[in-house]
UniProtKB/TrEMBL annotation:
Source organism, top-level taxon: Bacteria
Predominant localisation class: membrane
Membrane-topology annotation of the record: Multi-pass membrane protein
Record keywords, A-Z: Cell inner membrane, Cell membrane, Membrane, Transmembrane, Transmembrane helix
Listed name of the protein: Inner membrane protein
Membrane spanning stretches: 109-127
Subcellular location as annotated: Cell inner membrane
Record GO cellular component, one term: plasma membrane
Pfam families: DUF454
Amino acid sequence: MTSMLMSYREWGVRKRAYLLCAWLCLALAAAGAFLPLLPTTPFLLCSVWLSVKADSGLAHWLVNHRRFGPPIRRWQSERTLARSTKWLATAMITANWLLLWVLGASLPLLAALAAGFCAALAMIWRIPTTRPGVGTRENEA
């Protein structure tokens, strides 16, 4: 009985931790809509995954949200990214690297960031591109 009660308590703590992390990821995703170096979609997807693990209503709210919902539904249905998202990520990453260069960041830092940014962009551009009309509310009826 004690071990059963302990695992129930641990699960309660675990659910709260998942929910806390889900809200943290959602906050980072919201910040990413305004901050150039912070990505939005990966944090949204992490937030949905964590909120499902926490068994909360946050996942349902995110998937049906007017702003956050379409990229999540697109990812869930097709595992794709919009071409505009890929170009925006490319532009933001390039702008950030150029800003660091203009501000006089050290060469080793610039080289390391260039390698990391190139790897991130290679992963982003390898993800299939969304077909027109997929993941929108009009086509889900």
